[in-house]
Amino acid sequence: xxxxxxxxxxxxxxxxxxxxxxxxxxxxxxxxxxxxxxxxxxxxxxxxxxxxxxxxxxxxxxxxxxxxxxxxxxxxxxxxxxxxxxxxxxxxxxxxxxxxxxxxxxxxxxxxxxxxxxxxxxxxxxxxxxxxxxxxxxxxxx
Length: 142
Prior knowledge:
The chain has helices at 7-16, 55-62, 94-107, and strands spanning 20-26, 32-38, 40-42, 45-51, 65-72, 80-91, 123-137.
């Protein structure tokens, strides 16, 4: 039986992953739509940079309830995962998009003199407020 992560372990796990999360939104047809996206966490929010106008954006505008999932491991003894359920919002304002682009780049280790100076045309960010954390760590039982 897996053990849940503490809130601190949960945040450390999200902050320490390679930078990809699976976002699941719900389409107008009622089906889930899952896609991998680059992300970063800031407090109780996860931010994902996206191209505006895509299916995931349309889905969120119709239903802001989403989930995010990251996992690691390859055997039953080291599988670890962390899922977030939350409410999403879309940011399109070029000043906000630039601010988030710069934060994400800085967290990836881009030097201050190499940070973006303008938002890419057609860019947006999805912001997910963490409402619920679900996690599992099979390695804690080993």
